Each structure stands twice: as C-alpha cells, then as structure tokens.
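B., you asked whether I could sanity-check this one before it goes into the benchmark set. Here's the sequence:
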Amino acid sequence: MNAVNLADCLPRLNFALAALLLTDGSAVAGGVSLAPHRAVYDITLERSTTSSGISDMTGRMVYELAGGTCSGYTQKMRFVTRVTDRNGTSSVNDLRTSSWEAAAGDQMRFLLSQYRGKELTESTEGTAGREDASVAVELTKPTTRALNLDKEVFFPIQHSIALLEAASEGRRQFPARLYDGSEQGETVFDTNSFIGNKLSEKTALNGVPADLRHLAKLDKLPAWPVAISYYEANAKGTDATPSYELAFRFHANGISSNLLIDYGDFAIRGQLTELTLLDADTCSQPKN
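And here's what the prediction gave me:
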C-alpha cells in the first residue's frame, strides 16, 4: 500500500475504534455498563513493509462518549497522524467523526470529515433508521442517496454491548455485520471477533498507566484479548483477506488498551495515555 493512500484507510477506523473505547458508569444497556468519558491514545508505527511506502508514523487519537440510555449516545473522535514516506516526505491526516445513536439501537446520525493537511478531502453525512425488514440509510454527503441494508446489521454502540456480553458469557467468536457510515456511507463490513481466555490481573494491566487503573477500576475488573477481522461485504468465507484486523485488550467495563490495527503492509499501535470520566446521563429512568 502506498503511503499516500493511508488517508483512504483511516475513515474505516471510525467504527472499529468507537466500538472499543467505551468505559464504565451508571447507565446500563443490555446488562453492559456504559458511561460518558474522554480517552486519549498515542499512535505509533508498529511495523511496515517496503511496499507500504511508510517509514514512520506518529499521532494521537481523542475519543469522547456522552449521553446514556435515556438521551442516546453521542460519540466524537479526532484522529491525527503524521506519516513519513520512504523519501522523507511527511503529510498530516486528520479524521474527525461524530455520531448519535439511540439507546434502543433503532436510529443513528453520523458525520465524518477527512482532512489532508488543512484541505478537506472527504465528507460523509447521513442518517440510518430501522424499519420492519431493513435499515434505511439517507445520505446527504458526499451525494444525496438512499440505501437499504439488511435488518441484521449492527450500529457501533450495539456492537460494543453485544461484544462485551459475548466475552462475559465465555463465547469464543462473535460474527456480526457492522455499519457506521464510513467508506462514504456505502459499506457494510462483515466481521468476526475472536475472544480469548480471561486474562490474569497482571497481564490485563500491562502498559496501562497506574493512575488510570484506579480511576476506571481496571485493576478490579476482568479483561479479555479480542481480535476482530473486517471484510468487505460478501468477501468473508472466500479466499479474500481481511481489509484490516484489530486486536486489543477488552476490559469488563468496556475500556480497551494495547490497541493494534493491522493493514497487512503496515500496522499501528495505540496506547491509552489519558482517561477522563465525564458526567453520566441523569435523565429519569422509567418505572417498572
């Protein structure tokens, strides 16, 4: 993969990263506790091949989750990387995303903007809503377009909840079709998540700053190693290789650490360096 094409890969990370960066709190959905928070990850180049055209990469990702089971979940992410090619030329890629998802998982709004330097190179905006037999998508950017998706597709928050539940239940695999509006709003990814044995406390906390362990109770919760393979729609089950693979530690409260994103020709590492717990959703809960 040529270095100049890295910006084409970055929008795909919106779904994968949003699905990982959930933290614990008082709002509960499907038995899984999610809460507002802000997380910061330092990005470095783990490895690259000659064919990738990449000699170095550094950056930072800031992710924020707000809302809860009453008002729905709002996610924001900014992911900035500086990429240096084999000739020593560097470029800055800046991915900005925001989305809102109803707690019931029946509605979603999304906006993704990709910058190369200061130039806006791509923008995607739209809504998705569940109907009786399908998911209806209305895109307003980059062009006005209507799509109908299979009703089985997951939205990001839905997938986060389901994956945490699967890990807690001791399941080894969790296949799912995912939609987040990336790839110009036109792509549904077929995925398969592989879940390992629950980690020991020492292994689960490797690389996590000591102050963050206590803040988010990571030192008191179980964690699992998880790897997710992402395929273009209808490619899974053939000889096709994944578009990319994502590996990480998934803590029981939804926080991820030791993130690795592998595109084949190159891979990047994300280390959790800052975590702030925000105010939880305080709207009244319905009485039983």
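One thing to flag: Confidence is low (pLDDT under 50) at residues 1-8, 10-16, 18-29. Otherwise nothing jumped out at me.
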